[in-house]
Each structure stands twice: as C-alpha cells, then as structure tokens.
Amino acid sequence: MAPIQVKKVCCIGAGYVGGPTCAVIALKCPQIQVTIVDLNQARIDAWNSPDFELPIYEPGLADVVKATRGKNLFFSSDVDRGIQEADLIFVSVNTPTKKSGVGAGFGADLHYVESATRRIAAVASSSKIVVEKSTVPCRTAESMRTILEANCKPGCRFDILSNPEFLAEGTAISDLFNPDRVLIGSLQTQEGKDACAALASVYANWVPKERILTVGLWSSELSKLAANAMLAQRISSINALSAICEATGANIDEVAHAVGYDSRVGPKFLRASVGFGGSCFQKDILNLVYLSESLHLPEVAAYWRQVVELNEYQKRRFSKIVVDALFNTITGKHIAVLGFAFKADTGDTRESPAISLIRDFLAERAYITVYDPKVEEAQIWMDLSEACPHLTLDQIKRQVTIVHSALEACKSKEAIVIATEWKEFREIDWQTVYNNMTKPAFVFDGRLLVDADKLRRIGFKVKVIGRGEVL
Ligand SMILES: NC(=O)c1ccc[n+]([C@@H]2O[C@H](COP(=O)([O-])OP(=O)(O)OC[C@H]3O[C@@H](n4cnc5c(N)ncnc54)[C@H](O)[C@@H]3O)[C@@H](O)[C@H]2O)c1
Ligand SMILES: O=c1ccn([C@@H]2O[C@H](COP(=O)(O)OP(=O)(O)O[C@H]3O[C@H](CO)[C@@H](O)[C@H](O)[C@H]3O)[C@@H](O)[C@H]2O)c(=O)[nH]1
C-alpha cells in the first residue's frame, strides 16, 4: 500500500505549543495546508492580527507566522470545519493539574482533551489520524480511541498517535527547527505503523531521519513525563546542593561546573535558581506521582514528589534569605522585584517563582515594585490575586506597583530581588541604580545573573543563591 500522504493538518489548541509547532510545520512543509483552531476567539484574533501582535511572545515566532499566514497557515475559531477538512489532527489543548474531584492537586485534568476528542468524533465524516500532542498520563490514547471508535461513521477509521512536544518556551522556534528528537508512538498494528509513517514523513521535511524515534503508544506517553521529571530532578538536585554551598562557603557555580564536566552527567540544566517554574515541570511530575500511586507504587510516588517539595522549599528559603538579610523584618520596606516571567525570553508567568516570592513579601507587609519586560500588567494582577486569595485586588494594589523599566523599579528601594534571568538586568547601569537607592543597598540574585564582585565594588550588599560568601 502507498504511504498515506498528509495534505491537510488541523491543530486543535492555538496555545504555546499548538501555535509555534504548527506554524513551523507550515513553514517547513509548504505543500501542506495547516489550520490552527481554538475556541478562544480573542486568541485567534491575536494570531490573525494585522500587525503580528501575536498572543504569545517567542523569539523568531513572528517571522515564521509572517512567512506563512494566509499562504498555507490559517488561524480560525471554526473548529468543526478545521476537523472536517483535515486528514491529520493534532490535539494540543491544555492539560492542567486537576483542581477538584478524584486526584485533585495531582492528576491531569483531561476534560479539554476529552471534549476535543468528542468534537472530532461528532463532526468527522472521513478517516483521520488523530495525534495526541498535549502532555497526558499514560494510556490516555486508549480513552481517546474508545471515544472515537464508539462514534465512528461507516467507511471512516481513526488512528491514534502520541507525539509529545519537547520545546521549551523562549527557545521554541530553534527547538522546533532543530529538535534533539521527534517522538512518535503508535499501536504496533499495520494501521498504527502506517499512521506513524505518515506523521514521520511530515517531520522528515526538515528533521534528520535518525532523530525521528518511533515507539509504542504507552512508551511515548510515559517518555514525555519521564523527560520532564528527570530535567526537573536535576534542578532540584542542584538547588539542594545550593543550600549546602551557602552553609559551607562552597560556590554552586564551581560545584555544577565540576560535576557537569563528567560526561556521564553533562553540563546542561545544572543552573541553581530560586526554583523552577513554568506550566510543565510541576504539573507533569505531580501527574507521575498520581500515576505511581494509582499503580500502587508509593515509594516511586514519594521519590518524584520530593522533586516538587524541594522546589517549594527553595522558593521559601530564598524569601527567608531576603527577610533575614534585611535585619529580620521587611515590614514597610520597599523592594524591587526584577522579572515576573518564569524564565527569560517569555511572557509566560505560569508557576513563576516570582509569584511565590511576592506573595511571601506581601505577607510580611513589604512594598513591592515589579518590572518585567514582557509580562502584561493585567497578568501580574491576575496572578497575584490568585496567589493571595485573602487580599482584595485593592489591597494588593496598595502594596504593589508595576513600572516600565528596571531603573524606575529600583529607585529609592532598600533591596532588589532578581527573580527572572532577563539579560537586560545584567546590563543595567548598576552605578546609577546604586546612587538612587536607600542605603545599605541590597541585591538578592536568585538567578546567578549579576557580577557580584563588581556590584560589591560599587557598594552593594549582594547575596547570590548558592554562594556562601558574606554580604
Ligand atoms: N507550554 C509548553 O512549553 C509546553 C511544551 C510541551 C508540551 N506542552 C503541553 O502541551 C499542551 C498545551 O500546552 P499549552 O502551553 O500550549 O497550553 P495553552 O493553554 O497555551 O493552549 C491550549 C489552548 O487550547 C484551547 N482549547 C482547549 N480546549 C479546546 C477545545 N476543546 N477546542 C479548541 N480549543 C481548545 C484553549 O483555548 C487554549 O488556547 C499541554 O498538555 C502541555 O502540557 C506544553
Ligand atoms: O538549569 C536550569 C534550567 C532551568 N531552570 C528553570 O526551570 C524552569 C523550566 O525551564 P525550561 O525547561 O527551560 O522551560 P519550559 O518551557 O518549562 O520547558 C520544559 O517543559 C516543557 C513542557 O513540557 C518541555 O517541552 C521542555 O522540554 C522542558 O525543558 C524555568 O523556571 C527555568 O528558569 C533552572 O532553574 N535551572
């Protein structure tokens, strides 16, 4: 049988994954028509905005969209039409941690995946390859298959693939252009393998064949959770060591360098920080914890849970470092928080450590001034309101100010807390910052960003995560 040719792709979910991933498919496969659909009309309008004010900030994304939109890339809120026309459909909807019911606080909320799947079942009138792009618990593809097969119209068939996404925010476009690997999981039946070959042939337009890995469905689903759990585990390991460094006078940069030089460990992802954030690590580990518990593997669950607990500890520990250094009280003191995004080069604030820090500082009744180059003001108010349910927005606004430059944020403050590793914070005119601050002027670097010695020469008292030196 001739290999299945993919001509029309639909992506359900125009978010951080669906948007960039399918825009890159459109760029690399001009012969394929790609339609990205979403129920959120405002998001679709932003993707279609005439001046390319896209709903997410990602370096290089606007260029990809400029090169393809209106040619072979379309954004639409007509979900049904997108489904009907496509021969391959990516399901790239959100899978947040469940907030209530069985598994609340751990398991994945799969209702968006289920409703997208039910929509495909309801409107598809021809055969489709349905690709699970969202990060999901192991065996979700089976539930999708049950829903689809129970509703299949005569003459139609559905093949389900798992194709988890490994892009990181802030580097999404380069990750997609040059992925370490593309992982495709399928049933090991002839039909499953044919569907897998069809999707592999899409990626083969730009990804070297040896980087396209094909495995069983359940291995593919579990590999995504495993990859995130092991990456986050490295950060919690280095952050645990950062606490030992501070207590002993060792330097976490030197320790990470020495350990990472061992080729079995490797140098990447060993940067100590105020804690990891982002929409994926915590959610996916909790998901793995839940899966382990459901499988009656409590020791395995406890092992992975500790990665998240250590991360919470690191955030609390950093807040305490600030309070302790400021003479054990920050009540009524003025603190600048530089950065609100969960990492540099993104406007995304999901699970950002900055939110936990500011929540802790508000509990101590400090005054906070926030600056982030990419996060919208409305987003900051929303995140702080959610993090501090006992305060009204008016009460929060009495204690928090949002400004539009780092210099403005630091003016007349007693302390600066670096929460996100934006490059521009390294390049601020630190002498001017110092001149305009209340003395003694403190800098707390939660991202190993600044040249601490240079700042000390200016006169700052500097505390860097994972370094035992005296202020
Ligand atoms: N953000 C990342 O860096 C990243 C990386 C790899 C994998 N993932 C995974 O990819 C998935 C999507 O993540 P995201 O960050 O893009 O989420 P997101 O919230 O940015 O986007 C999801 C979109 O899906 C839409 N949606 C939900 N249900 C729908 C439905 N039934 N029909 C049409 N649209 C619907 C929502 O309106 C939203 O715009 C998650 O499972 C996540 O874990 C995320
Ligand atoms: O050495 C490091 C590396 C990262 N971080 C922090 O860890 C968090 C996550 O960073 P990163 O992994 O770069 O960004 P994400 O966009 O969350 O990407 C992760 O989560 C995605 C969603 O599943 C996966 O696709 C990616 O492969 C995986 O890296 C951020 O707060 C970083 O500041 C550190 O503290 N130290």
Automatic annotation (TrEMBL):
One of its GO terms (biological process) is glycosaminoglycan biosynthetic process. Signal peptide: none annotated. Keywords: NAD, Oxidoreductase. One of its GO terms (cellular component) is nucleus. Pfam families: UDPG_MGDP_dh, UDPG_MGDP_dh_C, UDPG_MGDP_dh_N. Its EC number is 1.1.1.22. The active site is at C280 (nucleophile). NAD(+) binds at residues 13-18, 38, 43, 93-97, 134-135, 169, 280-283, 350. Residues 336-452 form the UDP-glucose/GDP-mannose dehydrogenase C-terminal domain. It catalyses: UDP-alpha-D-glucose + 2 NAD(+) + H2O = UDP-alpha-D-glucuronate + 2 NADH + 3 H(+). It is an enzyme of class 1 (oxidoreductase). GO terms for molecular function: NAD binding; UDP-glucose 6-dehydrogenase activity. It comes from the Eukaryota. Pathway: Nucleotide-sugar biosynthesis; UDP-alpha-D-glucuronate biosynthesis; UDP-alpha-D-glucuronate from UDP-alpha-D-glucose: step 1/1. Belongs to the UDP-glucose/GDP-mannose dehydrogenase family. This is UDP-glucose 6-dehydrogenase.
